[in-house]
Design brief:
By secondary structure, the protein is an alpha+beta fold. The protein is 14% helix and 23% strand. It has three domains: 60 residues, S-adenosyl-L-methionine-dependent methyltransferases; 97 residues, Immunoglobulin-like (Sandwich), CATH 2.60.40; 88 residues, no CATH class. The strands form three sheets. It has a five-stranded mixed β-sheet with strand order 4-10-9-6-7, with no helix packed on it. A hairpin with a 3-residue loop joins β1 and β2.
Length: 350
């Protein structure tokens, strides 16, 4: 509710007290490395509804007519639910206000998804959906569905809904390996009457990431035989043997690129290194656009935004790369300054 300014300004706040003590510096109270030890012990209207965004429209400025009125068209998505419409008005330097209303979209026969948004490959699960009868008469509904990544269609179901009644239905599935998402398409149809159909996606992640267990580098001059065998505990459908032929050792950085794509750390130096190693111009431009929190009062780059002082080594590292042209580089003015020219040029680490 970021739009409700008055409530945010006048909200009740609790008392906060900060204390400091030197008790841990008393002899006998220091841990002497015990803290570093690991702790343990204890035990809509379209044929198929698939757009379900929660935000329908955002307009930063709405022009008013001479009577102070405005007309705004709000496009509805496929969600059959209630929506809140809020207008925030400002006048001058210290006047503001809010107003709002609610609308509701509905239809006689509705399907709501209860499937988990994230599953792991190989998981056995039950994908559930809710079917609701919003009319004042009974319905006999047949349900059909399919999942694009599953070869067999879902078993058809039939249920009877009383007026205003909702029932849960579902199918037992196993998430296949080697796919990124499951695309469901479920249809509910009354015999000789109305129908509803939705389409959703369910993200699938790999429970055991594929990684290299053994690698061999040889110079091929004649026939080469390397016996291989799949481990007994290997997961079927994942992994394999990859063969790469390169004319020289300097050609081909597939391993480095794969490693940098999965690089887990996120300080400024590491983000810059990822952009350079992957030759990702978009990532570099995004990093430079969000650079302000990483600069201190002197224009030096900081490893993390919460640090107070920057590093000249990090500044030279980021500003010295070829992907930072002088005309657009945030460090260009600092590199031309006397402070930078007066220092010994540090060794680049990027």
């Amino acid at each position: 509710k970021s739009w409700d300014l008055l409530e945010g300004m006048m909200v009740k706040r609790g008392y906060e007290v900060q204390t400091a003590t030197a008790q841990m510096h008393v002899v006998g109270k220091r841990h002497f490395g015990l803290k570093a030890q690991p702790q343990g012990g204890g035990g809509g209207r379209q044929a198929t509804r698939e757009l379900f965004d929660t935000l329908l429209l955002w307009k930063g400025r709405v022009p008013l007519n001479e009577r102070g009125e405005a007309s705004v068209e709000i496009p509805l998505n496929d969600s059959v639910t209630a929506f809140r419409i809020v207008a925030v008005a400002t006048g001058g330097a210290e006047l503001f206000g809010t107003g709002g209303t609610s609308i509701r979209s509905t239809q006689d026969l509705m399907i709501f998804s209860g499937a988990a948004p994230l599953v792991r490959g190989g998981d056995r699960m039950r994908s559930e959906f809710t079917v609701r009868n919003a009319t004042n008469r009974a319905m006999e509904v047949s349900l059909t569905g399919r999942v694009e990544q599953v070869p067999d269609p879902l078993k058809p179901l039939t249920l009877t809904l009383a007026p205003g009644e909702a029932k849960e239905v579902g199918w037992d599935l196993m998430a296949p390996l080697g796919v990124e998402a499951l695309a469901y398409e479920i249809e509910a149809r009354e015999k000789g009457g109305i129908s509803d159909r939705i389409r959703i996606k369910q993200r699938v992640v790999t429970p055991v990431p594929v990684r290299v267990f053994q690698a061999t580098l040889v110079q091929v001059e004649k026939e080469l035989r390397v016996p291989v065998e799949r481990p007994a505990d290997a997961i079927a459908g994942l992994g394999g043997v990859a063969l790469l032929f390169r004319p020289s050792l300097a050609d081909g950085l597939g391993g480095v690129i794969e490693y940098m794509k999965r690089y887990p750390y996120s300080c400024l130096e590491q983000e810059a290194s990822r952009a350079v190693a992957l030759r990702d111009e978009g990532r570099w431009k995004q990093l430079m656009a969000n650079l302000s929190p990483y600069l201190d009062a002197d224009g030096l780059a900081k490893y993390f935004p919460l640090m107070t002082r920057g590093s000249d080594v990090l500044t030279a590292c980021c500003g010295g790369t070829r992907r930072c042209p002088p005309q657009t580089c945030p460090f260009a003015s600092w590199r031309r300054s006397k402070r930078f020219r007066g220092r010994a040029r540090p060794r680049r680490r990027c």
